[in-house]
Design goal:
Layout (H helix, E strand, L loop, with lengths): L4 E3 L2 E3 L12 E3 L2 E3 L12 E3 L2 E3 L12 E3 L1 E4 L18 E4 L17 E3 L17 E3 L57
Length: 191
């Protein structure tokens, strides 16, 4: 199916909760303060787009293409990234809330998460090698059979990662958050 091609447009203060975003290939478009919560963005392509102050909570995104997309200060609670088209998938997150989002089984090499809330986010079987979690809250985030090689967690917090279930070669941790590697052993460490 050939989608209409829309480029270099800016969309501001639009709610797509009742009226859906038209299916198209959006290239170099900017969305500011738009509400996509509980809407369908399935089979829409976003290439080199930026979303600022947008709400994507509980969105449906089957087959959605996200290539070179920046999410800046977005609310993305429960976003099913695992349902998106994995081919060419690449994005950056800045000061966004990704609680309960799912990145299950995705290749996300060199992805940047900057000052994000990632509470109970699912990274099971994902390849995050080379990624950076800069000042992120990872409370109860799920890392199982995840490739975390060369990942920088050095200033993130609330980590709990089982070293026996994940690849951690050359991952970076601070002294404080390295204790999260011992949680699965139920060890008590006293000051």
């Amino acid at each position: 199916m050939n989608l209409p091609f829309i480029s270099d447009e800016t969309y501001k203060n639009i709610s797509y909760t009742k009226q859906e975003l038209p299916k198209a290939e959006y290239d170099n478009c900017t969305f500011v303060n738009c509400d996509f919560s509980e809407s369908y963005i399935s089979n829409i392509s976003f290439l080199d787009c930026e979303f600022i102050d947008c709400n994507f909570s509980m969105v449906k995104a089957k087959g959605t293409i996200l290539k070179d997309v920046l999410f800046n200060n977005c609310k993305m609670v429960g976003f099913p990234f695992h349902d998106c088209n994995a081919l060419f998938m690449s994005f950056k997150f800045k000061t966004s809330q990704l609680n309960f989002a799912s990145f299950h089984n995705l290749k996300l090499k060199n992805t940047t998460f900057d000052q994000c809330k990632l509470e109970q986010t699912d990274f099971t079987e994902a390849d995050l090698s080379g990624s950076k979690f800069d000042d992120c809250n990872l409370l109860r985030a799920i890392f199982e059979h995840t490739n975390l090689e060369h990942v920088n967690f050095s200033n993130s917090y609330n980590l709990s990662i089982n070293p026996e279930l994940n690849k951690l070669k050359n991952a970076k941790f601070s002294k404080e958050n390295a204790l999260g590697l011992l949680n699965s052993y139920q060890i008590k460490i006293e000051d």
